[in-house]
Amino acid sequence: MGSFDETMVERKEIYSGKILRLCCDRVRLCDGSTAAREIVEHGGAVCVLPVTEKGRALLVRQFRYPAGTELLEAPAGRLEKGENPLSAAKRELLEETGCVAENWTDLGFIYPTAGYSTERIYLYLACGLQRGEACPDEGEFLELEEIELEKLFKMAAVGEITDGKTVCAVFRGKEFLQNGRNK
Taking residues 10-32, what's their average pLDDT? Predict the structure, then answer.
């Protein structure tokens, strides 16, 4: 099988903001022709599936403006420039749930929308939780919910959880918790 690599020929920046940058690239395809690619450059994010010693996951319910609805999600957030993903995961867990975890498992990463975005979301399982008080970012309004793991697995499987990063964290976390392995 041959290479399907694409090579950038030209880049035009359309927008640059706090969270993302939008570019329109002209690329050379493997057959020598060219095509346009609209790219959203994003610095990356983390998503944490926190699990209590009683086998319950901690999730947050929040309104997501782009989706126009409240979503039930695993705690998550953007990477700060140059920030290590595990450090970001620990920060987000503390901010959104008030918890600190003793045990961390790297569940790999996902490209949530590889067709047009550079974003990678790093997934973690957090266990051995010690509870404290949440301190969400300014303008972030969250409600913490505890859900039995088996119920959460079913909710993700039947489409009751619709946030993609959460669904991925739930199933990768399930694999690790049930079989002691990931990736």
Answer: 97
